[in-house]
Amino acid sequence: MRIGAAKQSYEADAALFDTRTQRVWAGLLVLGLCAFPFVADEYWLYLACLIAINVASACGLNILTGYTGLVSLGQAAFMGLGAYTVAVMELRLGTPFAVNLLSGGLVAMAGGVVVGLPSLRVKGLYLAIATIAASVLAHFLFSNLKLTGGTTGLSLPPARFFGTALDTSFRIYWLIVPLAGLMLLGASNLFRTRIGRAFIAIRDRDISAEVLGIPLLRYKLMSFGLSSFYAGVAGGLWAYFFRVVTPESFPLLMSIFFLAAIIVGGMGTILGCILGAVFMTLVPELLKLVIGWLPLTTNATLILSPVRTIVFGALIVGFLIFEPHGLAEMWRRVRRYFHLWPFRT
Amino acid sequence: MSGFDWLFFFEISLAGLGSGGLLALAGLALVIIYKATRVVNLAIGEMLMISAYLFFAMASSMGLPVWLAIVGTIVASGAFGALIERTMLRPMLGESPISTFMVTVGLSSILVGLVELVWTADPRRLPEFMPTDPVLLGEAMVAPKVFYGFVVTAALIALVLLVFRFWRGGVALRATASDQAAAYSMGINVPRVFSLAWTVAAMIAAVAGIVVGAVGGISSAMGVFGLSVLVVVIVGGLDSVLGALVGGVLVGLVEAWAGAYLGGEFKVIATFSLLLLVLVVRPYGLFGTHDIERL
């Protein structure tokens, strides 16, 4: 049972990691992430990078959907905006990757603000469908503009860090994972400030929030902007990681994937978007393993893709019905059990 | 505009009207579900798809006569709709609209996976069951499938409207839609009405699915049709039957014109631009009711 955790000041109560145990575990996690590339093989490094990108993007969507309560099915389109910006800048201007990633984020942010403009007039499902429209328009632009290379897309050289090309999973890991960590830290700090609190107030009841003196349009647009900034940076990392960007790289299904990730992980918690993105990225890989083991007569790869689609849908439905607060809530239950042990929860 | 080919325009418009009828029909299914249960069913395209595949299985693989296969598909789809409502949407009663919306998103993914698992992702053709002589309306020629599809669609829409006007269950459904609490207190079994709405909507979707499949063939990507249906109901207003009909025809025409005059890839852009325009000018659709929000 946890004892001696009495808070003596507001700072202590508002701290991100409020107990020593938490600080120790967080430190161990960082150490583990630093050691990981030296022990893992290429496949696991690849997965780790992909997970980190997905975590960053899911975290952005969580700001918008989980915390501000605005459903968006355009996250993949914003990632695409970021990825294309990075690719074009890398190819045309040859600027350093940090500038490119930042511009990718900013361009996506501008796109997000434009898409967010109707959010004051329309809400809920109407807004979700307006964002579908935005992603359809983005797909159309990507595949028809000369700048974006049409349907064949763009291939870009690896990012360069002081002359070293980040061309292997091992090298780019050191770019992607720390950046994703930084973004997560930023998001968790955001909800300790006025802006973040305002987002939560808007989610809980937007009219009440307006009565309390929160300008709705400004804060909703801010939420859209921040969320798509995250998506843009994640998209830029995606571009540097896969090094080829096509219009088909960012389908509507990907937006649904991120929405599913934050639902499965737990809407409106930072832990939720981490757990959700990790879980949803690993499930297809796990399925590949399981189907590989099964003694099947037919070709295993033939049934893999449909089974994945079914499991993906079933996870969304199952979590919404049986565990609406997601993996984060399960995690909290486990923690509570240990905190209160030997007493019953 | 001396060089403007009016005959071509007329033919294109007729084709647009044909697909608009189908969109209106599927939109009707969506509106019925929304009115009764306040659920926006994103899986409508996939429900069309699964019905088309059921028809394919009954008519082609099992070799049933076409009329029996049609009846069988409608009955099976209705039962399936009721099953979905009971197992997936009933537990979500009282949850936020976004959660129920996401349940239907999950459902659509499950249905696509099921179809690919059973029938693989390859496109297939439904057996021919409509007359194949070209139809002439004045000078304009219409593809026979489109014409007969439109006739079936129009007849079904009329039937559905009549049923909801006069049948007891239809009246119960309208009562539930306008005021759930009052419907309860008048002795209407509201959960039964939810089931009924899903059953009827699934049956309507089944007919739409068979016609869409007969016109364009079936594949596991058929659910994309659902996106156009979504545009239809948003343009018309989610809770308006009239809106679904007008929106369906409008979107069908816009799609056909954009496809003919701008090129195939502009179809989607045209419909979604229409959607954005309507959202900006009339956020609740052309005929939707504007909810007044209170604290």
Secondary structure layout:
The complex is a heterodimer of chains A (345) and B (295).
Chain A: H1 10-14, H2 20-39, H3 42-67, H4 75-93, H5 97-116, H6 124-144, E1 154-155, E2 160-161, E3 164-165, H7 169-190, H8 194-204, H9 206-211, H10 216-242, E4 244-245, H11 252-265, H12 270-293, H13 300-322, H14 326-340
Antiparallel strand pairs in A: 1-4, 2-3
Chain B: H1 6-37, H2 44-61, H3 66-89, H4 97-119, E1 135-137, E2 140-142, H5 144-166, H6 168-178, H7 180-185, H8 190-216, H9 225-236, H10 241-261, H11 266-281
Antiparallel strand pairs in B: 1-2
Rg calculated over all Cα atoms of chain B: 19 Å
Question: What share of the residues of chain B lie within helices?
Answer: over 70%
Strand order of the largest sheet of chain A: 1-4
Main pleated-sheet profile of chain A: 2 strands, antiparallel
Domain count of chain B: the total is 1
Topology pattern of chain B, helix = H, strand = E: HHHHEEHHHHHHH
- Give the uncertain stretches of chain A in residue-range form: none
Q: Strand order within the widest sheet of chain B?
A: 1-2
> On the 0-100 scale, what is the average pLDDT of chain A?
89
- Percent strand of chain A equals under 5%
**Structural class of the helices, strands and pairings of chain A?**
mainly alpha
Structural write-up:
The complex is a heterodimer of chains A (345) and B (295). Chain A is an all-alpha fold and 345 residues long. Chain A contains 14 helices and four strands. Chain A has helices at 10-14, 20-39, 42-67, 75-93, 97-116, 124-144, 169-190, 194-204, 206-211, 216-242, 252-265, 270-293, 300-322, 326-340; strands spanning 154-155, 160-161, 164-165, 244-245. Chain A has a two-stranded antiparallel sheet. Chain A has a two-stranded antiparallel sheet with strand order 2-3. In chain A, a hairpin with a 2-residue loop joins strand 2 and strand 3 (164-165). The model of chain A has no long low-confidence stretch (mean pLDDT 89). With 295 residues, chain B is mainly alpha-helical. Chain B has one domain (10-222). Helices cover 72% and strands 2% of the residues of chain B. Chain B has helices spanning 6-37, 44-61, 66-89, 97-119, 144-166, 168-178, 180-185, 190-216, 225-236, 241-261, 266-281, and strands at 135-137, 140-142. A two-stranded antiparallel ribbon of chain B has the order 1-2. In chain B, strand 1 and strand 2 form a beta hairpin. In chain B, helix 1 (6-37) crosses helix 9 (225-236) and helix 3 (66-89) crosses helix 8. Chain B is globular. Chain B starts with 5 loop residues before the first helix and ends in a 14-residue tail after the last helix. The model of chain B has no long low-confidence stretch (mean pLDDT 87). The A-B interface holds A 65, 71, 118, 121-122, 124-126, 128-130, 132-133, 136-137, 140, 143-144, 205, 207-208, 211, 256, 259-260, 263, 302-303, 305-317, 320-321, 324 and B 40, 88, 91-92, 95, 97-99, 101-103, 105-117, 120-121, 227, 230-231, 234, 238, 265, 268-269, 272-273, 275-276, 279-280, 283-284, 293, 295.
